[in-house]
Amino acid sequence: MNETYRKEMQRIALRIRKVREYKNFSQEYLATKIGISQNAYSKIELGYSKITLDRLFHIAKLLDVDTYELLASKRH
């Protein structure tokens, strides 16, 4: 994985975590809703695991945010 891609994946993961924390959801809650373990979910938020589009859409829906909000870079 090239460095630019890795950094962008980490930024997406950080945005997911920040929205989840803002909404006061636990990792366990979201993990259960998307059908994975809390450990697997934690790896997504840490940027250690690649996130599929399907999972990204599901997480966005559970967090009640537009997927674009999780993908958008503030560096325009």
TrEMBL record:
UniProt keyword annotation of Repressor present: no
| InterPro entries in the cross-refs | Cro/C1-type_HTH (IPR001387), Lambda_DNA-bd_dom_sf (IPR010982)
Q: Which CDD domains does UniProt cross-reference here? A: HTH_XRE (cd00093)
Keywords, A to Z? DNA-binding
**UniProt keyword DNA-binding present:** yes
Q: Which residues form a coiled coil?
A: none
Domain HTH cro/C1-type residues, every copy? 16-70
A GO molecular function held by the record: DNA binding
**What PROSITE patterns would the database entry show?**
HTH_CROC1
PANTHER family annotated for this entry? Answer: DNA-BIDING PHAGE PROTEIN, TRACRIPTIONAL REGULATORY PROTEIN-RELATED-RELATED
Q: Could you tell me what this protein is called?
A: Helix-turn-helix
Q: Which organism is it from?
A: Pedobacter xixiisoli
